[in-house]
Design a protein that fits this description.
This protein is α/β, with parallel strands linked by helices. The protein has six helices and eleven strands.
Amino acid sequence: MSSPSRLVEILHNKGELAPEWAPTVAAVDRAHFVPDTFEVADRTVSRSADEAEWRRMVYADLPLITQHNDGRRTAGEVTFPTCSTSMPSLMLAMAAVVRDGDTVLEVGTGTGYHAAWLAHRLGGDRTTTIETDKDLHDIARDNLTRAGLHPTRSAATAWRASPRGPPSTGSSRPARSATSPTPGWSRPYRAARSSPRGAPRSTPIRSPP
């Protein structure tokens, strides 16, 4: 049956798994961050209907859509994805800027899987994650607790930098923002979401000195 070791194997074989992230990918079980029912490749996968298929998808290098319409779907409404757990290989590409000893601010907790990676590698005291969707914040809180990881969490609609600049040496920002944070920078943020293809709208950056 598929397991975290299978995901490690897939990412290694694809040449996507940097040695410094291998222990984290192996230790943080993606299953803790995936609901019993999700969508992948335009089809629905249910754990109760097919446990083996559910596990195959969880430990594949695929984006898994975990929420539609901010979790408020109504009959007859057009649905669109508003949260997913991104492709692990894409997460690794985003996390490539992270260095041991960094303090990281993540904007957009989502399911909490990426925050779990950061907390595992850097420590919960060096990882802060912000989510504007209260429902997602609560889901991520439960997911992270189940995984035994405890980054600093915040449910917030905006983030304001101190006059000395962002409190981090590594952080996440919306990809639509073209410039890096500068001292005194202040900007409201909408939490990161994933597109139907699983490409997150946040990108790790290293804050200026």
